[in-house]
Amino acid sequence: MAGLHDWLSSRAEELDQSALLADAVLPALAGADLFRIGVPQSNGGAGGDVRDAVVAIAAVAQQSVTAAFVFWGQRTFIEYLLQGSNPALLERSLPSLMAGSLAGATGLSNAMKFLSGIEQLQIAATPEGTRWRLNGGLAWVTNLRKSGFLAAAAVAPTDGAPAAIIAFDGHASGVSRGDDLDLVALRGSNTASVQLAQVEVGAADVIANDATTWLPIVRPAFLGMQCGLSIGLARASLEQAASISAGSRNQLSPHIQALQQMLEARVATLLAGVHDGRFRSQAAALFRLRIELAELVQQALMLELQAMGGRAYLQKEQGGFARRWRESAFIPVVTPSLVQLQAALQQHESRAA
Ligand SMILES: Cc1cc2nc3c(=O)[nH]c(=O)nc-3n(C[C@H](O)[C@H](O)[C@H](O)COP(=O)(O)OP(=O)(O)OC[C@H]3O[C@@H](n4cnc5c(N)ncnc54)[C@H](O)[C@@H]3O)c2cc1C
Question: How far is CA 262 from CA 226, 259, 322, in A?
């Protein structure tokens, strides 16, 4: 981990602003054995559970949200296989996913929006005997390594069967990865669109047969690990704000400490809920935590800016502030976005009333 820590701290700016190191991220994370965290030992993992993965993603996000989001994509894909209904697919892919020699990408934003009733599924599955032909595309997928990937997507069968979650191979005939998206931040994340034209899949590629029942089951892990991004970024910003403010005249230290305590209390609630399974039935509580953590990121960044004052505007003195500011713009928009969650909570409250 010390080697990874040094690698990330010296390359965080480059990972954010250029795609040159994009293909080095996965091997760097795998080199610290991060993808085994929270995977049962019986599957070749390090043991522990999703809480450990949340904590590990947060630790990486403290240094680089680009690397942490790649970590999230890979580890969330692994979680899909662990919680899916296809042991052969798990057995076939897990060793290389944990070793980082195979990239796992999660294209399930579309599915999560579909589950909330705000978007149609973007991939149609036409039955052909016992198999399907897939046509459609996903506008945003991270961890699409140019050398190859497995990606998870929800597909809508054209015969009216339930939507399913499948894994498709980047090398399969009919799969085309777009160019890297021209992002303002997180440029080293291998983020691109992907199109599918007559891509053949079968039972061996199905992760879950019924997306609508499976997605709420996997959502606590999906969202919990995603919250790791907010936790790490907020911690980094508050740490920086605290060290600048210690012994200074700015009088921000009590505010910084209060925010740090609030953050750690939210983290404890998140980890407990991810562990005891309550978020499967109480999605609203998880949605509120995701919103609160995103708001804490904004407040933390504001305190870092205020502690730093004008130096935050000086290229040579801003100490990573500008990158964190850009990285923080990702937090409210990644699915489920804050707008989407607030709308879902409003619906939940009006149903309860
Ligand atoms: C750097 C980057 C990497 C990404 N990587 C991935 C990835 O690996 N996998 C993946 O699946 N996705 C990924 N995404 C996509 C991301 O998760 C979001 O889905 C996407 O940014 C939001 O979609 P949109 O901009 O098309 O929002 P739109 O659908 O255009 O919506 C705009 C806003 O309105 C909200 N909204 C829309 N309709 C409603 C409604 N009916 N009710 C309430 N709110 C609504 C949306 O949630 C959003 O906040 C990535 C995005 C970025 C920027």
Answer: 19, 5, 24
Model-wide pTM > 0.90: yes
Q: Is 343 in the pocket of ligand 1 (CB under 6 A)?
A: yes
- Tell me the one-letter amino acid at 147: S
Task: Measure the CA–CA gap between 100 and 108, rounded to whole angstroms.
Answer: 21
Ligand 1 pocket, 106 CB below 6 A? yes
Residue reference for tokens 């305190």: 303
Atom of ligand 1 nearest to the CA of 335: 17
Give the residue, by CA position, lying nearest to ligand 1 atom 16: 334
Asked if residue 336 has a cis previous peptide bond (ω within 30° of 0), the answer is yes
Q: Which two tokens stand for residue 213?
A: 């029942």
Cα 337 to ligand 1 centroid, rounded to whole Å = 6
The rounded Å distance from CA 8 to ligand 1 centre is: 27
Ligand 1 binding pocket mutation candidate from 334, 338, 345, 347 (most atoms within 8 A of CB): 334
Which atom of ligand 1 sits closest to the CA of residue 118? 41
Q: What is the DSSP track for 329-346? A: TTTTTSSSPHHHHHHHHH
Whole-number Å distance between alpha carbons of 288 and 268: 14
Q: Which atom of ligand 1 is nearest to the CA of 186?
A: 1
The tens digit of pLDDT for each residue in 12-68 reads 999 999 999 999 999 999 999 999 999 999 999 999 999 999 999 999 999 999 999
Q: Which tens digits make up the pLDDT trace of 231-281?
A: 999 999 999 999 999 988 889 999 999 999 999 999 999 999 999 999 999
What string of DSSP letters covers 15-53? HHH-STTHHHHHHHHHHTTGGGTTS-GGGTS----HHHH
In short, whether 273's Cβ falls inside 6 Å of ligand 1 is no
The per-residue pLDDT for range 280-336, each reduced to its tens digit, is: 999 999 999 999 999 999 999 999 999 999 999 999 999 999 999 999 999 999 999
